[in-house]
Here is the input.
Amino acid sequence: MDDSLQIQTFERVPSAANFASQIEPRNVPVVFNGCIKDWKAVSCWNPSSGGLDYLQERVGLSTVEAMLSKSAPVFYGDLRSHERVQFPFSAFIDFCKQHLRNTDDGHGVCFESERPMLAGSNTVEDCLLPGDAPQQVYLAQVPIMNIEKEDRAQLEALREDIQIPEFLEKKELASINLWMNCAQTRSSTHYDPHHNLLCVVGGCKQVALWPPSASPLLYPMPIYGEASNHSSVALENPDFSIHPRAEHSMDNCQKVILYAGDALLIPEGWFHQVDSSDLTVAVNFWWPSNMMSSMLEHMDAYYLRRILRRLVDKEMNQVLHKDSSAGIEKMKQVSLLSTSKETDQGHDLDLKCGNKDLKRNKLKQSTMLDELEPLALQAIHELVSLVHDRVNFSDQRQPVQSTLTDDSATSAKGDYRNNLIADLFRPEDDPVAKIIWVLEPLTLHNVFLAMAHNFPRTLEALILNLLSPVGAEVLTQKFDEMDRQTTGEARNKFYQVFYGVFDDQFTAMDKILNGKESFAFQALKNVLDQYLGVNVEGSKSSVG
Here is the structure.
């Protein structure tokens, strides 16, 4: 976990100015110990000290809407997993009182650090709904104040028992809500579109938090669905065969425990899962962040493209940088074959193509190979061997399209092998990409110059037949690094020699650029799947 994302704890309530300038802009959770300890609600609502009678007297006649779920103690946000039912608040208070009588000590059980969620507690026979138990009822997000729907503030009478913390007094609050459960509960993992200050009035809550960047590990529900802000992973019993990335989700998780009087800032977009002890009462404040409120609508499309491009670039870099250092060491440890064997094999392949360019000065060829470092010689041998093993030279001059953009069936051996390699997305699994990726830019520069002078037809076959999308991305990145390390004259000479081996230079350029775009398209599909829960099938044109 990045240090900048570590949760901080404050023992003193910050000023509004300090909160606005130093805390809120970080978009990182903060615990405020004892932040609301002076609320009237903390002393009057506590179930262990007569709070249930107080609440029943104040708002018992109010009708509230509650979540009713058969999956308790876990309450999932997906609308398919629960019902919304209305009944008198006094009926829920009666549930809580009976639950107190059925427990040994009459007090809720709080959490030990890292203790897993327990199953439901005792049930009661006389339930509000036949066949349902109070453990399956959760007062979630019952409005005390709602600026958008004032008529839905079902518990407005409780407003005078709470005080807006000083650092929120200038915020335009969207709503204030009551959360209450009579048995242990767990929310599904989700994020909110507003900043959230969660305040515990009675009992205690354990909150697990993940930064927005952990979205790929939590498999968010599809963006077009009703529960798009919820994770599709049941973290209490995950199935890693369905959600393999979730196996690493806890590496990015932080947990905090809140007791009566404490508050937790949960910034917008942070995934959180809340475990509540028996008879927990809480209040939360929601308000919009400055980022969303200040974003002009006509800029939405532009920022959407910028964000997607940023995530695609990040995905591509993560794919390419994985295990690259280990690959370099492995390449360096490979035993080198003799220069003569490499030269003989390369010449044999080029002669099979009927290459007229082999009528060169023998001393020049030998000198160039003799000047190469051992790692470059090894790379040439590996590349020449791949072409020798996988390309049918009788079909080598036919244009080859990337299999990510052309699904037409092919029968030629060269195209068949290319189809297999083009399906690979990671450089460590692609033989050509792996060889290119572990070489220093100037070493690769010399490798290609040597191949162009000694094995031009082999180099042509390598690019046209064996270069997969990931290979094209690796190659162009290496070209960019070469350009930064060489002079303008050297760059021009290199590209003249490199592209000079192709009968049609534009075909070679198209092959490289089409492969590079196919790699980026695969990264885009990964991003849409990981962050939006959208599975894109088909070619680039289908989503263009």
